[in-house]
TrEMBL record:
Protein name according to UniProt: DNA-binding response regulator, NarL/FixJ family, contains REC and HTH domains
Modified residues (4-aspartylphosphate): D72
GO molecular function terms noted in the UniProt entry: DNA binding
SUPFAM superfamilies per the UniProt record, alphabetical: CheY-like (SSF52172)
Signal peptide positions (record): none
Location of the Response regulatory domain: 17-145
InterPro entries named among the record's database cross-references: CheY-like_superfamily, Sig_transdc_resp-reg_receiver
PROSITE patterns per UniProt: RESPONSE_REGULATORY
GO BP of this protein: phosphorelay signal transduction system
UniProt entry keywords in alphabetical sequence: DNA-binding, Phosphoprotein
Amino acid sequence: MALKHLLVKKIIVMFQKVLIAEDMDFINSGIKTELTKLNIQQIDYVQYCDEAFLKLKRARIDNVPYDLLISDLSFDEDGTMQELKTGDQLVEKVRNEFPSLKIVVFSVEDKTFRVQTLFNDFKINAFVWKSRDGLKELKKAIQLIYNSNKLYVSPHVANALFKSEAIEISDYDIFLLECLSNGNSQEQISKNLDSKKWSPSSISSIEKRLKFLREHFNANNPAHLVAITKDLGLI
């Protein structure tokens, strides 16, 4: 009986101190309800990114750090002055300051490039899409990242995110696409690259890279390429 009791206690061990950054009260309430079911002892929430960052720092100074941050990406502006205005900015700053903190993003965002950036650049541990089953997925994600070093991503975006033919989109590629979306010719793009001291800047190199991007995104022409990459959130 004693052994059985110990095993049960081991199963329900979970993060003990969690911070939620979300500006919608009803969503905060829903998240808190689900987290309570996971035996999490302290659940705090804030509605501003600056406040979230300061709260994490204060907790570390007081030697009672948070185990987990759950953050949205979009925060409505209400006139309150904020240095960190988006969840992306918050996550980036938190990851630099707290490299070992577990981070879950809970958002309606589903643009592949943006989600890729969160995993590749900001090293989040889970991305949960806000949907009808979002809170159930959130519980699953939290349990997974607590018990392992695995990453979690909602099925809605997983196929696009981890498809085998995915390529790394660089700042150079994004600049080319932005120039293309502004109606710049390849000659103009070349001059723009020269002014930024970026290379390669030759017209032939630009033409070759744009051709590669068109083929990768199955675009019929430059205008179609711009439309597709806008839909994906690249530009």
